[in-house]
Amino acid sequence: MTNLNKKIIAFDLDGTLAESKQHLEAEMAEVLALLAKEKIVVIISGGSFNQFLKQFLGSFNPKEVDVELIYSNLILLPTSGSRRYQYDAIIKEWIITDTEEMPEVIREKVLATIKSYIFTNTYGIGPVIEGDEVIEDRVTQISLSALGQHAPLEQKVIWDPDQVKRQKIKQELEKILPEVEINIGGSTTLDILPKGFSKAKGLLRLLDGLGMTKEDMIFIGDAIFPGGNDYSPYEAGIECIKTSGPKETKEIIKNWLDK
């Protein structure tokens, strides 16, 4: 891997390592494990840690003899990096090692505003099947998933493929909620974070905690475009690679491993 002069390889999750809310494929898990033997691998997403458990960790089962090395080099950043999880080899569990919570008064305003907004059924957003909420309060972040968290992928990909609907929603909500950051994520999601917070801040906060700089990191994401929730690392000056999806990401990793 002499061609990759970086200490940390950071990946978006949805749309980059796995399809929206879908499990990590076995071959992707395998190449990520091999990469984590050589580099620090960071996974960042607007999703909650519970989503990481279902979507990522449930399928990431390294069969290498040096499993503890792989886990020690793996850092998980749910809710756009406003929380950090690292593996504790002694208790064999993932523990929170950093967090930045949204102030309670702002959380309450955001929740009230979104609930009022979605029940107008604007842009086809409204209550969905029972048990599959449109709004998810992740404490450090609030997410609005237009079709619900677990809508079929085939419905998600056609709802807003060009992000036009979510750009309009984002602009409308920003007028009402100047206290927060609103980013487009996944296929149908808007992630709402404390003002000034983004994936870039989550990654830079991690780098600072590790005593490293942005020159030590490369970031791979599918939403590296203005308004996309992977765009902020690019704006912050972190080297980025835009990917079209998990298939291309897998080929990028394989190419690194083959060098």
Write the layout of secondary structure elements.
Elements: E1 8-12, H1 26-36, E2 40-44, H2 49-57, H3 67-72, E3 74-77, E4 83-88, E5 93-99, H4 104-118, E6 135-137, E7 142-145, H5 153-159, H6 164-176, E8 180-185, E9 189-194, H7 199-210, E10 217-221, H8 231-235, E11 239-242, H9 246-258
Parallel strand pairs: 1-2, 1-10, 2-3, 10-11
Antiparallel strand pairs: 3-4, 4-5, 6-7, 7-9, 8-9
Largest β sheet strand count, sense and barrel closure: 7 strands, mixed
Mean pLDDT: 88
> What strand order characterises the main sheet?
5-4-3-2-1-10-11
Order of H and E elements = EHEHHEEEHEEHHEEHEHEH
Features:
9 helices, about 260 residues, alpha/beta, seven-stranded mixed β-sheet
Task: Describe this entry's structure for a reader.
- This protein has helices spanning 26-36, 49-57, 67-72, 104-118, 153-159, 164-176, 199-210, 231-235, 246-258, and strands at 8-12, 40-44, 74-77, 83-88, 93-99, 135-137, 142-145, 180-185, 189-194, 217-221, 239-242.
- The chain has 259 residues and is of the alpha/beta class.
- The strands form two sheets. The protein has a seven-stranded mixed β-sheet, sandwiched between helices. It has a four-stranded antiparallel β-sheet with strand order 6-7-9-8, covered by helices on one side.
- A hairpin with a 4-residue loop joins strand 6 and strand 7.
- Helix 1 packs parallel to helix 9.
- The relative contact order is 0.18.
- The mean pLDDT is 88.
